[in-house]
Amino acid sequence: IDAGSAMEKGKLVGDVDFKEVSKKASYITPVPGGVGPMTVACLLENLVKLNKR
């Protein structure tokens, strides 16, 4: 899971070399659009749970 991101030449990139790793890994999440939406969903779920306490 490539959860890190950085700006490179004005473009958002991940910490993993996608082209190189995809030759060996069965699955890989792209940047942008990889785990970000899931992170937001989990944060919102936790916020709702906290609000119910």
From TrEMBL:
Repressor as UniProt keyword: no
Record EC number: 3.5.4.9
GO molecular-function terms, A-Z: methenyltetrahydrofolate cyclohydrolase activity; methylenetetrahydrofolate dehydrogenase (NADP+) activity
GO CC terms: cytosol
InterPro entries with a match to the protein in the record: NAD(P)-bd_dom_sf, THF_DH/CycHdrlase, THF_DH/CycHdrlase_CS, THF_DH/CycHdrlase_NAD-bd_dom
Enzyme category, top tier: hydrolase
UniProt keywords, alphabetically: Hydrolase, Oxidoreductase
Listed GO biological process terms: tetrahydrofolate interconversion
Domain Tetrahydrofolate dehydrogenase/cyclohydrolase NAD(P)-binding span(s) in chain numbering: 1-52
Record PROSITE patterns: THF_DHG_CYH_2
Protein name: methenyltetrahydrofolate cyclohydrolase
Species annotation: marine sediment metagenome
